[in-house]
Amino acid sequence: MLKKVLHTGLAVPNLDDAVAMYESLGFSVAKKFHKPDLNADVAMVSKNETTFELFEFHSPEHPQVEFIRNHIALYSDDIDKDVERLISQGYKLTIPINEGMVFRFAFLQDKTGTNYEIATEKADNR
């Protein structure tokens, strides 16, 4: 079952500038890392219950960028069932279930073109 919003993902032209802007709004960096598969630098900035995942893509032609650049991430307690249910409701699977650094995740797109990341904790993180 989908439980809550984890974060909103946004593409930014310069990660350091974007982080500085969010810090000026009272956000703090929760995590900063490089995603070699996407050739992207990423920062998670948080304030209270709000988190943004900021991506600076160095290879914008990567086929997954169009789905990741702007998305809403939702936490699932059963990713396999939730992805199957959303596909049966007409969502398009754009990135199959993967093992990420912290979460297992998949990306889907609704009929309006909005991108969703469905994520759950990896078994070894529980």
Written overview of the protein:
The protein has 126 residues and is α+β, with helices and mostly antiparallel strands. The chain has helices spanning 15-24, 65-68, 79-88, and strands at residues 2-11, 28-35, 40-47, 50-57, 70-76, 92-99, 103-109, 115-121. The longest helix has 10 residues, at 15-24. It is globular.
Search tags:
3 helices; 8 strands; globular; 126 residues; eight-stranded mixed β-sheet; alpha+beta; 2,3-Dihydroxybiphenyl 1,2-Dioxygenase, domain 1
Write the layout of secondary structure elements.
Layout (H helix, E strand, L loop, with lengths): L1 E10 L3 H10 L3 E8 L4 E8 L2 E8 L7 H4 L1 E7 L2 H10 L3 E8 L3 E7 L5 E7 L5
Number of helices: 3
Helix content, binned percent = 10-25%
- The SSE string, one letter per element, is EHEEEHEHEEE
Mean pLDDT: 95
What's the β-strand tally? 8
Class by SSE composition: alpha+beta
User: Spatial order of the strands in the main sheet?
Assistant: 2-3-4-1-5-8-7-6
Query: CATH superfamily, please?
Result: 2,3-Dihydroxybiphenyl 1,2-Dioxygenase, domain 1
Output the radius of gyration: 14 Å
The share of residues in extended strands comes to over 45%
* Outline type: globular
In this structure, how is the largest beta sheet organized?
Answer: 8 strands, mixed
Ranges with pLDDT <50 over ≥5 residues? none
Give the CATH class. Alpha Beta
CATH architecture: Roll
Number of domains: 1
Distance between the ends: 17 Å
- CATH fold descriptor: 2,3-Dihydroxybiphenyl 1,2-Dioxygenase, domain 1
